[in-house]
């Protein structure tokens, strides 16, 4: 692991990393159908040090999804007010280095304020060019008492994204206002990075992990846990049908009032993306809280969603995901979101328009301008009818030509971005069953039910051989099929785009020796168990 403290060293490291990676990618991989696979995917985890389990969770996720993981450690003076805790903020670089090394981090970027060009000044006194998010997003919640805070955050985050130029950057949901602002910043400035939100990690008491928890005694940590208890009681009220902000806020206030040492700064209900105040939750809301315990300021939040559950089924090729997902959706009366058909529809349109598979610019434009629709069908073999630009392509997308080219199209970043956006928009109402490689970990990270469906390589090879026989295709030996499946697993798990991975909170279902109905029955049983807990 490298410790980098200057911009020059960071740039040298990144240039060498990308240069060496391009040289070591074999010709076989370059020519492979997964043409977007490479060894240059970089994940950035921006921190201010004082690392804890919440940070380690971000690093773990980045490690799963990227070839290189860089952690920045920078106590940013621009986001502290004149009377805040900049001078005493935890600085534990030596300990942080050990934690990063054990977590598999490749490099730490730990610059001084002078290296970052800001000096030890707050935002009001700094002469640096500032990045100022929309006023509506920074004047409420924490911005009301921390003037200039989010300008300081946005300015330094923008600098870090420009310096590292990562494929993905990782932030925790605990800082819900910061997360929304950074997502908006990236979208508004067209920065080529994916912002990955990770769930809040909590101590056994429910207290959200924070570097500032180091200020608290053991007794104070127990007292501070009342914040989360209040939020959970509001969540219970929400699940029982309470939708109005004043009632939800009153539930939290009543619980927090039990601990007299905790002084509330605010409890507010806002829309999680825009941070606009909500009177009533129609689809989803973020109930956010800030309070002080002695001289320590604490924040937390919880997302409240009014939607039908989503079932996300991930797993390797040949595990039977599509067939199982269709059956589960049919038996539960949910919508089967055929994500594979969406990629096939794009592929069909690319072929129809005579666009070369390697013309990624033309394909990107097509993916972002075409209109895909999925409608339920009574045909059990094709339970979803697929339309693209008002043309029914349900049967056309199953041809050999489309099948042979869909992987190359699906591996292109722009195609994936366009379709994931559509899928997430459909998911806002819930009531879906979706399957793929990273449906539960990325497309629907907040899915209520997550399944990782798998089977041994030998079992999947046997199933594929049986499918070939039923389809009248030439016989392929089990040994060859096993080699093909093992190679596909490796490619799928190391792809830069949409890598195969099991979500941390997914239930793994090993299906060797089980038929489709048995697998579906287990998922449905688990779904009902989860439903009873809500």
TrEMBL record:
<dbReference type="GO" id="GO:0036431">
    <property type="term" value="F:dCMP kinase activity"/>
</dbReference>
<dbReference type="InterPro" id="IPR024894">
    <property type="entry name" value="Pantoate_ligase/cytidylate_kin"/>
</dbReference>
<dbReference type="InterPro" id="IPR014729">
    <property type="entry name" value="Rossmann-like_a/b/a_fold"/>
</dbReference>
<dbReference type="GO" id="GO:0015940">
    <property type="term" value="P:pantothenate biosynthetic process"/>
</dbReference>
<dbReference type="GO" id="GO:0004592">
    <property type="term" value="F:pantoate-beta-alanine ligase activity"/>
</dbReference>
<feature type="binding site">
    <location>
        <begin position="48"/>
        <end position="55"/>
    </location>
    <ligand>
        <name>ATP</name>
    </ligand>
</feature>
<protein>
    <recommendedName>
        <fullName>Bifunctional pantoate ligase/cytidylate kinase</fullName>
        <ecNumber>6.3.2.1</ecNumber>
        <ecNumber>2.7.4.25</ecNumber>
    </recommendedName>
</protein>
<feature type="binding site">
    <location>
        <position position="178"/>
    </location>
    <ligand>
        <name>(R)-pantoate</name>
    </ligand>
</feature>
<feature type="binding site">
    <location>
        <position position="79"/>
    </location>
    <ligand>
        <name>beta-alanine</name>
    </ligand>
</feature>
<comment type="function">
    <text>Catalyzes the condensation of pantoate with beta-alanine in an ATP-dependent reaction via a pantoyl-adenylate intermediate.</text>
</comment>
<keyword id="KW-0067">ATP-binding</keyword>
<keyword id="KW-0808">Transferase</keyword>
<dbReference type="InterPro" id="IPR027417">
    <property type="entry name" value="P-loop_NTPase"/>
</dbReference>
<keyword id="KW-0418">Kinase</keyword>
<feature type="binding site">
    <location>
        <begin position="209"/>
        <end position="212"/>
    </location>
    <ligand>
        <name>ATP</name>
    </ligand>
</feature>
<keyword id="KW-0566">Pantothenate biosynthesis</keyword>
<feature type="active site" description="Proton donor">
    <location>
        <position position="55"/>
    </location>
</feature>
<dbReference type="Pfam" id="PF02224">
    <property type="entry name" value="Cytidylate_kin"/>
</dbReference>
<comment type="similarity">
    <text>Belongs to the cytidylate kinase family. Type 1 subfamily.</text>
</comment>
<keyword id="KW-0547">Nucleotide-binding</keyword>
<dbReference type="GO" id="GO:0015949">
    <property type="term" value="P:nucleobase-containing small molecule interconversion"/>
</dbReference>
<feature type="domain" description="Cytidylate kinase">
    <location>
        <begin position="311"/>
        <end position="529"/>
    </location>
</feature>
<dbReference type="InterPro" id="IPR003136">
    <property type="entry name" value="Cytidylate_kin"/>
</dbReference>
<keyword id="KW-0963">Cytoplasm</keyword>
<feature type="binding site">
    <location>
        <position position="201"/>
    </location>
    <ligand>
        <name>ATP</name>
    </ligand>
</feature>
<dbReference type="Pfam" id="PF02569">
    <property type="entry name" value="Pantoate_ligase"/>
</dbReference>
<dbReference type="GO" id="GO:0005829">
    <property type="term" value="C:cytosol"/>
</dbReference>
<dbReference type="InterPro" id="IPR011994">
    <property type="entry name" value="Cytidylate_kinase_dom"/>
</dbReference>
<dbReference type="GO" id="GO:0036430">
    <property type="term" value="F:CMP kinase activity"/>
</dbReference>
<dbReference type="GO" id="GO:0005524">
    <property type="term" value="F:ATP binding"/>
</dbReference>
<keyword id="KW-0511">Multifunctional enzyme</keyword>
<dbReference type="InterPro" id="IPR042176">
    <property type="entry name" value="Pantoate_ligase_C"/>
</dbReference>
<keyword id="KW-0436">Ligase</keyword>
<feature type="region of interest" description="Cytidylate kinase">
    <location>
        <begin position="303"/>
        <end position="534"/>
    </location>
</feature>
<comment type="pathway">
    <text>Cofactor biosynthesis; (R)-pantothenate biosynthesis; (R)-pantothenate from (R)-pantoate and beta-alanine: step 1/1.</text>
</comment>
<dbReference type="GO" id="GO:0006220">
    <property type="term" value="P:pyrimidine nucleotide metabolic process"/>
</dbReference>
<dbReference type="InterPro" id="IPR003721">
    <property type="entry name" value="Pantoate_ligase"/>
</dbReference>
<comment type="similarity">
    <text>In the C-terminal section; belongs to the cytidylate kinase family. Type 1 subfamily.</text>
</comment>
<feature type="binding site">
    <location>
        <begin position="172"/>
        <end position="175"/>
    </location>
    <ligand>
        <name>ATP</name>
    </ligand>
</feature>
<feature type="region of interest" description="Pantoate--beta-alanine ligase">
    <location>
        <begin position="1"/>
        <end position="302"/>
    </location>
</feature>
<comment type="function">
    <text>Catalyzes the transfer of a phosphate group from ATP to either CMP or dCMP to form CDP or dCDP and ADP, respectively.</text>
</comment>
<dbReference type="InterPro" id="IPR004821">
    <property type="entry name" value="Cyt_trans-like"/>
</dbReference>
């Amino acid at each position: 692991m490298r410790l980098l403290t200057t911009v020059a060293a960071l740039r040298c490291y990144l240039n060498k990393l990308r240069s060496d990676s391009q040289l070591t990618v074999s010709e076989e991989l370059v020519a492979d159908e997964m043409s977007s696979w490479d060894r240059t995917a970089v994940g950035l985890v921006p921190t201010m040090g004082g690392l804890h389990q919440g940070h380690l969770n971000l690093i773990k996720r980045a490690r799963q999804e990227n070839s290189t993981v860089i952690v920045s450690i920078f106590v940013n003076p621009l986001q502290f007010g004149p009377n805040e805790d900049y001078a005493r903020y935890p600085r534990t670089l030596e300990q942080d280095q050990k934690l990063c090394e054990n977590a598999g981090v490749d490099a730490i970027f730990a610059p001084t304020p002078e290296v970052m060009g800001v000096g030890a000044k707050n935002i009001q006194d700094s002469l640096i060019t500032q990045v100022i998010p929309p006023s509506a997003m920074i004047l409420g919640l924490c911005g009301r008492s921390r003037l200039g805070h989010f300008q300081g955050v946005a300015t330094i985050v923008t600098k870090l994204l420009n310096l590292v130029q990562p494929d993905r950057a990782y932030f925790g949901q605990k800082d819900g206002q910061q997360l929304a602002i950074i997502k908006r910043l990236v979208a508004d400035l067209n920065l080529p990075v994916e912002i990955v939100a990770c769930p809040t990690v909590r101590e056994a008491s429910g207290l959200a992990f924070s570097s500032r928890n180091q200020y608290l005694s053991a007794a104070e940590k127990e007292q501070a846990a009342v914040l989360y208890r209040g939020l959970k009681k509001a969540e219970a009220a929400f699940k029982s049908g309470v939708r109005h902000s004043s009632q939800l806020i009153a539930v939290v206030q009543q619980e927090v009032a039990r601990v007299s040492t905790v002084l509330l700064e605010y409890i507010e209900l806002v829309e999680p993306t825009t941070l606009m105040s909500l009177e009533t939750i129609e689809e989803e809301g973020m109930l956010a809280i800030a309070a002080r315990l002695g001289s320590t300021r604490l924040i937390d939040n919880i997302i409240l969603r009014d939607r039908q559950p989503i079932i996300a089924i991930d797993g390797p090729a040949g595990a039977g995901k599509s067939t199982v997902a269709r059956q589960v959706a049919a038996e539960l009366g949910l919508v089967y979101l055929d994500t594979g058909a969406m990629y096939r529809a794009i592929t069909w349109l690319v072929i129809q328009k005579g666009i070369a598979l390697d013309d990624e610019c033309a394909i990107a434009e097509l993916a972002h301008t075409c209109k895909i629709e999925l409608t339920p069908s009574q045909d059990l073999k094709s339970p979803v009818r697929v339309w693209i630009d008002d043309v029914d392509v349900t049967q056309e997308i199953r041809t050999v030509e489309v099948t042979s080219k869909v992987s190359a199209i699906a591996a292109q970043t722009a195609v994936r971005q366009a379709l994931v956006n559509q899928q997430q928009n459909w998911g806002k109402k819930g009531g879906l069953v979706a399957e793929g490689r990273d449906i539960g970990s990325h497309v629907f990270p907040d899915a209520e039910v997550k399944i990782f469906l798998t089977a041994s390589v030998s079992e999947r090879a046997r199933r594929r051989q049986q499918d070939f026989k039923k389809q009248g295709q030439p016989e392929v030996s089990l040994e060859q099929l096993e080699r093909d499946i093992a190679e596909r697993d490796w490619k799928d798990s190391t792809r830069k785009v949409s890598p195969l991975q099991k979500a941390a909170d997914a239930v793994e279902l090993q299906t060797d020796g089980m038929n489709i109905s048995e697998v579906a029955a287990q998922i449905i049983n688990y779904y009902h168990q989860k439903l009873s807990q809500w």
